[in-house]
Specification:
The complex is a heterodimer of chains A (51) and B (732).
Chain A (H helix, E strand, L loop, with lengths): L1 H26 L6 H8 L3 H6 L1
Chain B lengths: L1 H7 L5 H6 L2 E7 L5 H12 L6 E5 L4 E6 L6 H10 L4 E3 L11 H29 L6 H22 L1 H12 L6 H21 L6 H36 L2 E5 L5 E5 L8 E4 L9 E5 L2 E4 L1 H4 L5 E3 L4 E2 L4 E2 L4 E5 L7 H14 L7 H26 L4 H15 L2 H20 L2 E3 L4 H5 L4 E4 L1 H5 E7 L8 H11 L5 H12 L10 E4 L3 E6 L2 E6 L15 E5 L5 E10 L3 H10 L3 E5 L4 H11 L3 E3 L4 H13 L4 E4 L6 H6 L2 E5 L4 H6 L2 E3 L6 H35 L5 H20 L11
Parallel strand pairs in B: 15-22, 15-24, 22-23, 24-25, 25-26
Antiparallel strand pairs in B: 1-3, 1-4, 2-3, 5-6, 5-7, 7-13, 8-11, 8-13, 9-10, 9-12, 14-26, 16-21, 17-18, 18-19, 19-20, 20-21
Helix pairs in contact in B: 5-6, 5-9, 6-8, 6-9, 7-8, 8-9, 8-13, 9-14, 9-25, 12-13, 13-24, 14-24, 14-25, 17-18, 24-25
The chains are: A mainly alpha (51), B alpha+beta (732).
C-alpha cells in the first residue's frame, strides 16, 4: 500500500499537466481556426516570412 | 514602407491581436483554401501602415493590425479586391476583451473531463476492492481525494447550469437545468456528508461525470449556434457594400453604402451592384434585375431611368444620382417586410424544450415522492435523501442535453460536406416537419442566367462560330451564353483582338470584307424582330442577319427532383415574379401543376400565409430580394449560394452548386435527424424504465448509478454518430 503514497500524486500530477496543456492551447487560440491550421503546416513560405 | 513590410513578417497570434492598438476585422467571402489565406494575409500586409494580418479560414475572416487609425477599412477592402477577394468590414465587431462563450464552456468542459477521469479512477479501485482487501482507511482516503477534486469542479464547471436554473426559477419557470443543478448539488453535498461519516454511499463520480456529459452536449449545441451566428454576421457584413462617389471637382472617393446621401453621384463599374436606388445620370447599359423582379432578361437603361440598389450593372460604367439612401431603398423596404414575416417564426419551440416541459416537472415529482415515500415508511431522512438523489441522478436528462445536440452536429456536418450550410440553430427541426414546397423560378429552379434557346441548332455553325469569336471579347451574359453554346457545339472559339464594345448596343469587328456586328436589333440594322423574347442579332460582313434567341434554362436535375419530391408525398408549388407565359412553360417543364406568375413580394407572403392557414408547413426555396420576405414567412427556407445576400440571410440553410438535388438531401437528413432524436429519447427512457424503479426502491449503488448514466450517454451519442454515414432514401 505504500506504493499508493506516490502513485496517486503521480497520477493526479499527470492529469493536471494534461489539463494545463489543454487550457494553455485554448488560451493561445490554437482551437480558433482548426481548418486554417492544417493548411498553414503545408505552407513553405511561412517559415521564411517569420525570419 | 520598408518598416511596414518588415513588421508584416511578424505573425501575430489572435490573442495578441486583441491587445494591439487598432485591429480591423474583415469578412472575406471567397477565401476557401490555404493558398487564399496566404494571399489575403500578404495583400493586407503590403498595405502601408498595416503591421500584420492574420486570417481565420474557418470563420472566413481576417484581422489586420495597424498601429494607428490612419488605415481605413475601405483601404483594406480595396487592397483585397485588387488581389481578387470580395470582402467587407464586419458590422458588429465582437468585443475583443470578452471571452467567447464557446471558449469559456470548453474550459469548463476540460476541467470536468479531468475531474471525471480521475475520480472514476479512484472509484473503480474502491468498487473492485470492496469484496477484497482494501482497508477502511484507504477507502476513506480515496473518498477524500475524490471530494478534493469534485468540490472545486462542481463549483466551477457546474456554473452554466446553476446560472440558467436560477434565471428560470426567478422568472417562475422550471427548465431542464433545475433538476440537473438539484441533482448535482444534492449528490455532491450528500456524498461529502457520507465521506465525513465514512459511509459507502458516495456519488462523486456520478455527479462529476454527469456534469461532463451534460457539458459535452451543451458545448456541441453552443458551437453550432456560434458557427451559425458567425455565418449570419458574415453575410450581413457583405451586404453593406461600398460605392464610388464622384465629387464636385471630378475626383472620386470610396464610401460605405450607409454614408451615401441623396443627390450624390455614384459611379458603378460593369459587373458591380448598384449601392443605392438612383436615376441614371450618364452612360447607358444593361441591368440584371432578376434578384428584384425575378425577370431573367436584362433591362436596357438610359439617362433618366431608375435603377434599384442590389441590381447588377452588366455593361460599361454608369453614373447615377442617388435618390434614396441606405435606409429607404427598395432593399431596405424588403428588409422591413422580412422582419415582420420573421416574427411568427420566433415562436417556434425546439424539440428538446418541448420535451423538457413535460420531463422537468415529472423528475421533480418523482424525486420528491421518493423522499416522502421513504420518510413515510419510517426509514429516516438519510436513506430517504440518498434514494431521492439516486432518482435525480438516474433521471438526469442526458438524452435531452446530449443526444439532440449530438444528432444535430452529425446532421449539419453531413450536410456541410455536401455543400449545404445550415444557418439557423433550429432550422433542421423545422425542415423535418415540411409538407409543402414553394419554389421561386429564376435562379432557384432555373440557373438564372440566359442560355441560347434550344432551337439554336438551326443556326449555321459558321454563324455561331463567328458570333462566338466576337462575343468572347465581352462579359455580357448574352455574350457568354453565345460562347458557351459554341463550345458546347464543339466549335473552336478564339477571342479576336480588334473587337469594339459599345455599351447598350453591342459588339463590332472590322474584317477585310466588311464590318461584323453582334448586338441589339437596332445595332444590326434590323427593324422588325418578328418573334417575341430576348434576342441578339448577328450581322455578317455581307449584310446577312441571323437572330439568336435566349431562354432561362432549368437546372439540370430540376424535373427529376420535383418528381421525387412529389413521390415522397410533398406538394410542390411555383411562385415567380416573372411573366405568366415564361412561368407556365417552366412549370410545365419541371412538372409543377400549381404555379403563379407576376407575383409581388407581398403576394408571395400572402400565398404562404394562406397555405399556413390551411395547416400546411411550407418550405420556401428562393434566391431573390423579392423572395426574402417569403423565405422569412415560410416554416423553413432554403437558398442557393448564388442568391442575393439578403435572401441568404433570411434562409435557414444555403446550398451550393448547379443542381437542386441538395433540397432532397437537406430534407432527407433533417427527417433522419428528427427520427434519430426520437430514437435517442426512446433509448434514454428505456434506461430510465429499468433503473428508476431500482432507484426508487433504494437499490442503486454508486457503481450502478455511474454505469447507467455513462452507458446511456454513450449509447445516444453512438446512435447519433451513425447519421454521418447512413444511407438515406431519396438522396443521390
Amino acid at each position: 500500500m505504500t506504493a499508493l503514497a506516490w502513485l496517486i500524486p503521480c497520477a493526479l500530477a499527470l492529469g493536471l499537466l494534461g489539463l494545463a496543456a489543454f487550457l494553455w492551447c485554448l488560451n493561445s487560440g490554437q482551437f480558433d481556426d482548426l481548418e486554417g491550421a492544417g493548411w498553414r503546416a503545408l505552407q513553405d513560405e511561412e517559415a521564411d516570412r517569420q525570419r | 514602407m520598408a518598416q511596414a513590410v518588415t513588421a508584416g513578417g511578424v505573425v501575430l497570434a489572435p490573442s495578441r491581436a486583441d491587445a494591439s492598438p487598432v485591429a480591423t476585422t474583415l469578412v472575406v467571402e471567397n477565401m476557401t483554401c490555404g493558398g487564399c489565406m496566404r494571399k489575403v494575409e500578404a495583400a493586407l500586409a503590403a498595405v502601408p501602415g498595416v503591421a500584420g494580418a492574420r486570417a481565420n479560414l474557418s470563420a472566413r475572416r481576417v484581422t489586420a493590425i495597424h498601429p494607428d487609425a490612419s488605415v481605413s477599412a475601405m483601404d483594406l477592402v480595396d487592397a483585397l479586391s485588387r488581389a481578387g477577394y470580395k470582402s467587407a468590414p464586419l458590422t458588429d465587431e465582437p468585443d475583443a476583451k470578452a471571452t467567447s462563450p464557446d471558449r469559456d464552456l470548453l474550459k469548463r468542459l476540460g476541467v470536468a473531463g479531468f475531474a471525471a477521469a480521475n475520480i472514476m479512477l479512484l472509484s473503480v479501485s474502491v468498487w473492485s476492492a470492496s469484496s477484497g482487501d482494501m482497508t477502511p482507511a484507504v477507502q476513506a482516503l480515496f473518498h477524500w481525494l475524490s471530494a478534493l477534486i469534485a468540490l472545486p469542479t462542481v463549483a466551477y464547471s457546474g456554473q452554466p447550469f446553476f446560472r440558467s436554473a436560477i434565471q428560470a426559477l426567478r422568472s417562475g419557470r422550471v427548465n431542464m437545468d433545475v433538476p440537473i443543478s438539484l441533482g448535482v448539488l444534492l449528490a455532491t453535498a450528500m456524498s461529502f456528508y457520507q465521506t465525513m461519516r465514512g459511509s459507502h454511499q458516495v456519488f462523486f463520480d456520478a455527479a462529476v461525470s454527469l456534469l461532463f456529459f451534460l457539458l459535452v452536449g451543451r458545448f456541441l449545441d453552443l458551437r453550432m449556434r456560434v458557427r451559425a451566428a458567425g455565418a449570419a454576421a458574415n453575410l450581413l457584413g457583405l451586404r453593406g457594400t461600398a460605392a464610388t462617389v464622384i465629387q464636385q471637382d471630378g475626383s472620386t472617393v470610396r464610401l460605405a453604402a450607409g454614408a451615401l446621401m441623396p443627390g450624390m453621384r455614384v459611379l458603378t463599374a460593369a459587373g458591380e451592384r448598384f449601392a443605392v436606388d438612383g436615376k441614371v445620370f450618364d452612360g447607358r447599359g444593361d441591368v440584371d434585375e432578376s434578384l428584384i423582379t425575378g425577370e431573367t432578361m436584362p433591362r436596357t437603361i438610359r439617362a433618366g431611368d431608375l435603377v434599384y440598389a442590389g441590381t447588377v450593372n452588366l455593361f460599361g460604367p454608369v453614373v447615377t444620382e442617388a435618390t434614396a439612401t441606405d435606409q429607404n431603398t427598395l432593399l431596405a423596404e424588403i428588409g422591413r417586410l422580412m422582419a415582420v414575416a420573421e416574427q411568427a417564426r420566433g415562436r417556434y419551440v425546439r424539440l428538446a424544450d418541448r420535451a423538457a416541459r413535460f420531463y422537468a416537472p415529472a423528475v421533480h415529482a418523482l424525486g420528491l415522492s421518493t423522499f416522502v415515500g421513504w420518510m413515510l415508511a419510517g426509514h429516516g431522512w438519510e436513506p430517504a435523501l440518498t434514494a431521492a438523489i439516486a432518482v435525480l441522478i438516474i433521471t438526469c436528462p442526458c438524452a435531452l442535453a446530449l443526444a439532440v445536440p449530438a444528432v444535430q452536429v452529425a446532421a449539419t456536418s453531413r450536410l456541410l460536406s455536401k455543400g449545404i450550410l445550415v444557418k439557423a440553430p433550429d432550422g433542421l427541426e423545422r425542415l423535418a416537419e415540411i409538407d409543402t414546397l414553394v419554389f421561386d423560378k429564376t435562379g432557384t429552379l432555373t440557373l438564372g442566367e440566359p442560355e441560347l434557346a434550344r432551337d439554336a441548332r438551326t443556326i449555321p455553325d459558321a454563324v455561331l462560330a463567328r458570333a462566338a469569336a466576337l462575343a468572347a471579347a465581352s462579359r455580357h451574359p448574352y455574350a457568354r451564353a453565345v460562347v458557351r453554346a459554341a463550345v458546347a457545339a464543339g466549335l473552336p472559339v478564339a477571342a479576336e483582338g480588334n473587337v469594339r464594345e459599345v455599351a447598350g448596343f453591342g459588339l463590332e469587328a472590322s474584317r477585310r470584307d466588311g464590318v461584323e456586328r453582334l448586338g441589339s436589333a437596332d445595332w444590326c440594322g434590323v427593324t422588325s424582330t418578328g418573334r417575341a423574347g430576348a434576342s441578339v442579332w448577328y450581322r455578317g460582313p455581307g449584310g446577312n442577319v441571323v437572330a439568336l434567341y435566349f431562354e432561362d434554362r432549368l437546372r439540370s436535375d430540376a424535373a427529376d427532383v420535383v418528381c421525387r419530391l412529389r413521390a415522397s408525398g410533398l406538394d410542390v408549388e411555383l411562385l415567380s415574379g416573372d411573366r405568366e407565359a415564361v412561368v407556365s412553360s417552366i412549370a410545365r417543364e419541371a412538372g409543377i401543376y400549381t404555379w403563379r406568375g407576376d407575383t409581388l413580394p407581398a403576394e408571395k407572403i400572402a400565398r404562404i400565409e394562406a397555405l399556413k392557414a390551411a395547416g400546411r408547413r411550407v418550405l420556401m426555396v428562393g434566391d431573390g430580394l423579392n423572395d426574402a420576405p417569403a423565405l422569412a414567412a415560410g416554416h423553413a427556407s432554403l437558398s442557393p449560394s448564388n442568391a442575393a445576400d439578403i435572401a441568404q440571410t433570411a434562409a435557414d440553410a444555403v446550398f451550393q452548386g448547379e443542381r437542386v438535388a441538395p433540397v432532397l438531401e437537406t430534407l432527407a437528413v433533417s427527417r433522419a435527424a428528427h427520427r434519430m432524436a426520437l430514437q435517442n429519447f426512446a433509448i434514454a427512457i428505456g434506461y430510465n424504465c429499468v433503473f428508476v424503479p431500482l432507484a426508487v426502491a433504494g437499490h442503486v449503488t454508486p457503481l450502478l448509478a455511474a454505469i447507467a448514466m455513462s452507458a446511456s450517454s454513450i449509447a445516444v451519442t453512438a446512435n447519433a454518430v451513425r447519421l454521418g454515414s447512413k444511407r438515406l432514401e431519396g438522396t443521390s
